[in-house]
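Our consortium's second objective concerns turning raw sequence data into structural hypotheses that experimental partners can test. To show how far this objective has progressed, the report includes one record in full. It was chosen at random from the queue rather than selected for favorable results. The single chain below, 518 residues long, was entered without modification.
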Amino acid sequence: MLILVPILLLLVTSLILLLLRLGRPKFKRAWLIAASGTVLSLAGVFLWRIDFPHAYTLPAWQPETIFRYTPSWLADDFSWPYALALTVLSAAVFWTSSVRAETDPLTWSASFLVTAFGLLAVSAANPLTLVLAWTAIDLAELVTMLRSTQGVSQTEGVVVAFAARLAGTFLLIYAALRSAASGVQIDFASLPAEAGLYLLLAAGLRLGILPLHLPYQQETNIRRGFGTVLRLVSAASSLALLARIPSRAVDTPLTPYLLLLIALGGLYAGWMWLRASDELTGRPFWLLGMAALALGASLRANPLGSVAWGTALLLGGGFLFLYSARQRGVLWLAFLSALGVSALPLMPTASGWLSHSPLLAVFIIPYLPIQALMLAGFVRHALHPGETSLESQPSWVKGLYLFGLIHLLLAQVSLGLWGWGGAAALGVWWAALLVLGLTGLLVFMALRFLSRRAAGGSGGRWADILRLNWFFRLLQFLFRLAERISAALTHAVEGEGGILWSLLLLVLLLSLFTAGGR
């Protein structure tokens, strides 16, 4: 039952804030309630370590002949790091909201609600639980994005993103049904090897990296606070599945080709992240690039490595996206956060380059430039001026803001030392040093040749090809063609000649039945 404690705390806090916002909009203590919810939920995640690992399953649903699965959750080395990262991210968003003047309890309520859905997803122990959590997150994102987008093109992008994630959900359902048909019931603690490839494709499709697609062409006005939670929780819910894929499932002839395909997408995402005009414009590419590193680790039979890159995506990205008020005196905090993505010894990503398959160890080479691009982009964006100056903020605002950012740094240190079995690893030191050297060169070139104004392009024709924009435009053309045909048929049937068309169809049907009877 301990596993549900932080989830219930977040849900209760979200509900209280929502009721207060609707019933008593001028209530002065909403901030205190939200602060209490963040502290208690974070303490609830640490309670998981009391009985570790452990699972909790709801009573069986009836009838059992139909509901073979029951919602179940598992706290172990794979789920706890993601749960800690998500809870810390939610707390950091709340504490740093003072500097962005985001004081609406409705926004806090939405952040806590989405975080609770994310905890349900990362700790899911079977496909039913994960599908329910994915559906809740996807619907929350769909409603939020549709309410915040303007124009037909942005709305179509939101629908395409929802459809891509829905396709990933259907792949997971298909894997579960196929295993059930062969007499094997999928449980994430003991997955059959034949289901591993379907789960990998499901996670890759939802993350946008396999195949590479970027439906969101530009960010909306939900940017720093709730937008960061929504983007990162959605990514974490899919990344957690990668750690559940068994090592024997990636021992297929397709694995080297998948590694190279993902590396190609990761290199493109890393380049676009480095040259983006600012960190929020490049946020989709940060998600794609770091997801490529996590997918690559999973394909190299290194599930804990995928967790390392996944938590770096959440905590490193969360720091940079919330780092809106800046001054030179606190720049060292950003550099400490960048160390968490460096894969140096004792860092949380130190285990990211390990490979439990000697034949696939050579495939870390094309992924080293991806990490260098992501790290160089992080440093470049951290050196830019922020949206506001931290020096101009009141002392209490400055204190809460730094307190929230330090949350993320402490979480990185904790995961690097005690996050999972085998933490505090030395990793592959030569790979980390090679990446640091390449990162320094990339940062020098970026600061010298890239300007914020000139670096916001879309990447040209090759970017459209790699992002599968041509495929989405083809689907859009076919959809609109079908829409026009349907409208023409509707107009023909519902117009003055509708009765004649109905009689004609009736005669044709009768003639077919008569011919069939003979």
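The partners drew two points from this record. The chain has 18 helices and four strands. Residues 476-517 form one domain. Both points have been shared with the crystallography group to help prioritize constructs.
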